[in-house]
Specification:
Distance between the termini: 187 Å
Number of strands: 14
Keywords: Membrane, Transmembrane, Transmembrane helix
Order of helices and strands: EEHEEEEEEEHEEEEEHHH
Largest sheet: 4 strands, antiparallel
Helix content: 10-25%
Low-confidence stretches: 289-294
Strand order of the largest sheet: 1-2-5-4
Mean pLDDT: 79
Shape: elongated
Strand content: 25-35%
Length: about 290
């Protein structure tokens, strides 16, 4: 039994155990076993000791598959202190030196890219700052400048997008995980729902345009193939139906008597009218006609 080499936070100093029936590597648990062990206090076979007034206790880190010792400080740590930590199991005993460091501090946990420069500082013990790591959200970029007990972090954006990003500050020796919220710089169109959707789809626009172009080309080829594949049979010319001709109205003619042009006061006879008879001068027995013939 021995403590693992390296620098570890005082809250978890891992142990390595070797014995018959035990593996020297980390504990391997399935997801079901990890879920079943949550919230259960497991009794471990070893004890942990440290220098008074601090105390120590055995711990089991199921998430990382490790077991070890944890130091519980008697008061808040304001300056670095190195103390001895020991683990005992029956006749086996192992010890190591652990550094108690004050926690790091991030005074500003929210910055905005719309108001450059978007900077925040990390203050703490130089030994703790040396092992600080940071993870950032996609699309963000950070630049760091270090001093003895301070790290200045400047956040910039690789592309103009809307939303909220994060910078996670992870301190190994003080076992801290601090999140800094970053308000991204938005375009004017991002204030609307359409702008937000466009900002989300902007990285995928080339792929979307390619898919749309391929779909349009496929539909065009299909339409051309269908139009060429159809057989057009000859059809008789369409006959125009003319409306039936209506007979023209015949003008009514009237036969008039020769008397109509003479201006006699006697009404002109109409042919076929027996009411008007010729006078005696038209008679063949007339003496005037007889004398002329002689």
């Amino acid at each position: 039994m021995e403590f693992l080499h390296g620098e570890w936070p005082y809250s978890m100093v891992p142990l390595s155990l070797e014995a018959s029936g035990l593996t020297s590597g980390p504990l391997l648990c399935s997801e079901e076993q990890k879920y079943a062990l949550q919230g259960i206090e497991v009794e471990l076979p070893y004890i942990c000791r440290t220098k008074a007034p601090h105390t120590a206790q055995p711990v089991l880190d199921i998430a990382n598959g490790q077991l070890g010792c944890s130091i519980i400080p008697a008061s808040s740590i304001t300056e670095s202190t190195e103390i001895e930590l020991c683990a005992e199991w029956d006749s086996h005993r192992t010890c190591t030196r652990v550094l108690l460091l004050p926690p790091i501090d991030v005074p500003q946990t929210k910055v905005s890219l719309a108001n450059p420069p978007a900077t925040f500082t990390i203050t703490g013990h130089p030994r703790a700052l040396k092992l600080v790591k940071m993870t950032i959200s996609p699309g963000l970029k950070i630049e760091m400048s270090s001093k003895d007990s301070e790290i200045t972090v400047t956040v910039t954006s690789e592309q103009v997008t809307c939303g909220i990003g994060h910078v996670h500050v992870i301190s190994k020796l003080t076992a801290q995980d601090i999140t800094v919220e970053v308000e991204r710089e938005c375009e004017i169109a991002c204030g609307t729902l359409l702008g937000a959707i466009f900002s989300l789809l902007k990285p995928y626009l080339p792929t979307i345009m390619t898919i749309v172009a391929m779909a349009a080309a496929y539909l065009y080829v299909q339409q051309r193939m269908q139009s060429k594949g159809k057989l057009h049979m000859p059809t008789p010319p369409m006959q125009t139906v003319l409306p039936p001709e209506t007979p023209a109205a015949r003008a009514r003619t009237w036969s008039r008597s020769p008397y109509a042009s003479n201006g006699h006061s006697v009404p002109a006879p109409v042919y076929g009218d027996a009411s008007v008879l010729p006078d005696s001068s038209f008679s063949p027995n007339s003496s005037r006609l007889h004398s002329r013939l002689l």
